[in-house]
Design a protein that fits this description.
Elements: H1 20-47, H2 55-60, H3 79-92, H4 94-114, H5 117-129, E1 134-137, E2 153-156, E3 162-173, E4 180-186, E5 192-198, E6 204-205, E7 220-231, H6 243-277, E8 279-280, E9 283-284, H7 289-317, H8 323-347, H9 359-369, H10 376-388
This protein binds 3-thiaglutaryl-CoA and flavin-adenine dinucleotide (FAD).
Domain Acyl-CoA oxidase/dehydrogenase middle: 135-228
GO molecular function, one term: glutaryl-CoA dehydrogenase activity
Catalytic activity: glutaryl-CoA + oxidized [electron-transfer flavoprotein] + 2 H(+) = (2E)-butenoyl-CoA + reduced [electron-transfer flavoprotein] + CO2
């Protein structure tokens, strides 16, 4: 792969709206990605292997629980810092950002928000340091966009101490190597609860899903529960119902809205540099109007997405961001990134399909990003419901 020459576009001087702390956190993540992710990520994707060697680095830049309070091992940062870290990581690779998103927003967040003090003390510091890695099991083979229909369930073991968990989750990021899984399951009354399942519990297995053309540097798999005995003390006590997992998704979708900007910036920056250097018909291809149209539209869309994410971050810092606003940003920014990846690929001609450049990897990764955490269609329907009051899901 070519050396990482990334220079971040900031067409509207958005840096002026960030604090010195924001910029410091962002720049630390950016340097780490250049030094520790860029040199290895193409090979990891080609080999379809999550590079576990980067886990300590992710912890060191605050990617595991950026906004979780320091007393639990988190970094105690604001939401804009969280977004900027996700942007920089996804600039490197969406699969690496996935690992961080799941750990922070889908594993640490529910334990922090819905867990008991004992659960927080037991799990959060180890998750923040990367000693424990987590996964989040909501999707099932027959329940993707409609998680409320889930069939994974538990019943009382009758011994006063345990529950018995049965079911299966599919498409689970980090599952093949997770130490703990936050699993959403129905109790005997059909109410959804979060349960912390730990590796080693009998009847719990995590087979890997192979042959993916997307997010190849992220490990994806199943979570299978066959009469797994789980202590009742592992049930998250402080929130139940579908709103509990959906609340976690709000936090993860926010991170994706920022992360997608990173992937788009990398594609744009690569294509711009290439267009200035590649000579055809005696001129750099950047001098042709057709290529300028692509590049000009890319920087316009990136700038709009940056402003959308920043405003959402401000609202989230004030605890005023609605789920529907988060959906709009996730949907818009991922679509923006995937379109830019496709156009950028064309600017590189044949070179664009090789692993010498990051663009094709970003493009394939974004096919997952536009589907997970709520598909492109589902987020449109969330906006539709919000503005019309009419539910078009069912
Ligand atoms: P609905 O009746 O609308 O809602 C049920 C309850 O949930 C509440 N709620 C929310 N709460 C917090 N945040 C949100 N975003 C919420 N959306 C809804 C709602 O108020 C209600 O509460 P209550 O108290 O009245 O019961 O539910 P529905 O069954 O009609 O479904 C709505 C729908 C389709 C929007 C929702 O289910 C949905 O978002 N579907 C998409 C599923 C999804 O996003 N799955 C993601 C799986 S995790 C993943 O992909 C990780 S990838 C990670 C990575 O690698 O980065
Ligand atoms: P379906 O729900 O079957 O949707 C198929 C199509 O139908 C889509 O185009 C959808 O938009 C459309 N559709 C569905 N319902 C409607 C409707 N009401 N109106 C109009 N159109 C509709 N899940 C987890 O729980 N944890 C994870 O860590 C996780 N990681 C993932 C990693 C990867 C790489 C991938 C690909 C997925 C991951 N997922 C995870 C699952 C992901 O959230 C689901 O794939 C996603 O929610 C869509 O579900 P589905 O694939 O079952 O598609």
């Amino acid at each position: 792969m070519k050396p990482d020459l990334f220079e971040a576009p900031d067409y509207y001087n958005i840096d002026d709206l960030l604090t010195e702390e924001h910029k410091m956190i962002r720049d630390a993540a950016r340097s780490w990605v250049k030094r520790d992710v860029s040199p290895i990520i193409e090979q990891a994707a080609q080999d379809a292997k999550f590079p576990k060697s980067i886990i300590p680095g992710l912890a060191s830049i605050g990617a595991f629980g950026p906004y979780i309070p320091e007393e639990y091992g988190g970094s105690g940062l604001d939401q804009i810092s969280y977004g900027l870290i996700m942007q920089e990581i996804e600039r490197g690779d969406s699969g690496v950002r996935s690992t961080a998103s799941v750990q922070s927003s889908l594993v640490m967040y529910p334990i922090w928000k819905y867990g008991s003090e004992e659960q927080k003390q037991k799990f959060l510091p180890k998750l923040a340091s990367g000693e424990f890695m987590g996964s989040f099991g909501l999707t099932e083979p027959d329940h993707g966009s409609n998680p409320g229909g889930m069939i994974t369930n538990y019943k009382d073991a009758g011994d006063g101490e345990n529950i018995i968990l049965n079911g299966a989750k599919l498409w689970i990021s980090n599952s093949p190597f997770c130490d703990v899984a936050v699993v959403w399951a129905k109790n005997e009354e059909g109410r959804i609860h979060g349960v912390i399942v730990e590796r080693g519990m009998e009847g719990f297995s995590t087979p890997e899903t192979h042959n993916k053309w997307s997010l190849r540097a992220s490990a994806t798999g199943e979570l299978i529960f066959q009469d797994v005995k789980v202590p009742k003390s592992n049930i998250l006590p402080n929130k139940s119902g579908l709103g509990a997992p959906l609340g976690c998704l709000d936090s993860a979708r926010f991170g994706i809205a920022w992360g997608a900007i990173g992937a788009a910036m990398d594609c744009y920056d690569t294509a711009l540099r290439y267009a200035k250097q590649r000579i055809q018909f005696g001129k750099p291809i950047a001098a042709f109007q057709l290529q300028q149209k692509k590049l000009a539209e890319m920087i316009t869309e990136i700038t709009k997405a940056q402003l959308l994410a920043l405003r959402l971050g401000q609202l989230k810092n004030e605890d005023r961001a609605t789920s529907a606003q988060i959906s709009m940003a996730k949907r818009n920014n991922v679509e923006m990134a995937i379109k830019i990846a496709r156009e950028a690929r064309q600017i590189l001609g044949g070179m664009g399909i090789t692993g010498e450049y990051s663009i094709m990897r970003h493009m394939m990764n974004l096919e997952s990003v536009i589907t997970y955490e709520g598909t492109h269609d589902i987020h449109l329907l969330i906006t539709g419901l919000d503005i019309t009051g009419e539910n078009a899901f069912k």
